[in-house]
Recover the amino acids of this structure.
């Protein structure tokens, strides 16, 4: 999804879980894009959201879904932070290793300390 100055935050309301809202909207992206309008580029507005239909079986089911996926979402977030940390570490250590400013044994020690 691309954002510009017309950004919209979407949250579940009246007890509808955020995870349910996220995956429902994610599933509807192509419908939203087809319903967008604009002369320079396709724009999605609040009116565009009114044009899509979303299956809904009640708040209770969305909260059960949240309970089912919350551990997975937490793990995804943890993995993203770890990827970022490892990429920064790689970008810091690799040039030093290449130019001989750091020895492999020293890099291994830094890596152990970071993890």
């Amino acid at each position: 999804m691309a954002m510009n100055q017309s950004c919209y935050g979407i949250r579940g309301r009246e007890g509808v879980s955020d995870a349910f809202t996220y995956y429902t909207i994610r599933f509807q992206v192509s419908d939203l894009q087809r319903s967008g309008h604009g002369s320079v580029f396709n724009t999605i507005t609040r009116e565009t959201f009114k044009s899509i239909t979303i299956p809904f079986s009640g708040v209770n089911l969305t909260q059960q879904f949240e309970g089912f996926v919350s551990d997975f979402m937490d793990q995804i977030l943890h993995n993203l932070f770890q990827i970022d940390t490892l990429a920064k570490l790689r970008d810091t250590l690799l040039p030093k290793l290449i130019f001989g400013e750091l020895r492999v044994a020293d890099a291994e020690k830094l890596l152990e300390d970071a993890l």
Summary: The radius of gyration is 22 Å.
